[in-house]
Amino acid sequence: MKKITHILGIIFLFLCSTLIAQENNEPDYLRINASRQLKVILNCWSDPEDYPSLQYRTNLNKTWQKVIPDQPINVYNGYIELKANGTNSKIYPSRIEINSSRCVDISGNIMTLLDETGELDTIPTDYCFSFLFDCYKTALNLSNLTLPATKLRKGCYERMFYQSKIENFPNNLPASILSENCYEQMFALCELNCEIPNDFLPATELAMNCYKEMFAQCTNLSIPDHLLPAQNLKSNCYRKMFAGSDLISIPETLLPATKLEKACYAGMFNKCINLAEIPRHLLPATQLATGCYEHMFSDCNSLTTIPETLLPAILLSDSCYLGMFANCTNIHDLPQHLLPATTLSPYCYKEMFINSGLSILPTNLLPATQLAPSCYYSMFQDCIDLESPTELPATTLSDACYSCMFRYCQSLRTAPILRSLK
Length: 422
What we know:
- By secondary structure, this protein is mainly β.
- The chain has 1 helix and 11 strands.
- Helix content is about 5%, strand content about 15%.
- The chain is elongated, with a radius of gyration of 28 Å.
- The N and C termini lie far apart (about 120 Å).
């Protein structure tokens, strides 16, 4: 009898160790954990045939069960794990709603929502994880969340953590092959209670609109020195990336590219009303593109100066500085050699300082002698405090080159001197 009991004990220990080994060898499933009441709901807003097939288990019941759309899963001081029931091509337009009064840890491999084996490393469809987490003002610790895909798809992470409280970011987003709108508004309107890791966005080859509004309207935002290492830009790649945030400063090494693309920095810091200073060599580019700096710093009302070395390009592109400092009401004067360009393009300075606080201009601000159509269109329009214009040395004019340049500058005491009329 003792021998049989001993054998049964050995079998029991073997089975236990096997189960533990199997559990330890499991994929790193997506886990949502909280120290208080936690409620998770899969909200589905599409036709039933488009619902993702997911399973869940909890710390209290480790048997995988089917996730029923719109039916809450509740635990207290525990976790909920989620995985694909086989495979899914996407989660969107379904969303995972998370509610808790305490900080929620989201960990594991996000790709296990698509493939229960955890082996998938390529996102299969456009907008795959768009709008994934509905966590309005819920505090999230993402430090152990893995987004391992190295090749992204259009809009795949769009609004993924929109309007959440971020206590810790994932370590990085390792993708090297981006796609259109892939990170659009990923953390927009988030309250950030941590710093962005320095190597968070390592991609060096960008895509159209890839970082569009990624951190727009975030609070407590600070930017690490080398967040954006890319040299090869694409049109609109950084459009409004930090717009409307409470950013105070910008690292001088943030934007190393020397060749720009259409609207690449458009609105990038628009309405950053706490931004007080622009680094001297923030914009080293000498090869510009259409609309490349469009409204980049417009409505930044804490700016009081513009560094003289900021804009080194001498060959401009169409609308390149369009509205760049529009509505910057606390910039009262400009450095003498801010605009060294000698080769202009149509609308290149259009509305660059419209409705700003300028009261005086240096005499030699605009050295170009050969102009382009509408090149200075509305450049200083609505600068109601401007008393003294700059000299206009150009001898070769073009269609509408000075159109509306000083329109509604009601404090002007003298008219600008037109050398072309001498």
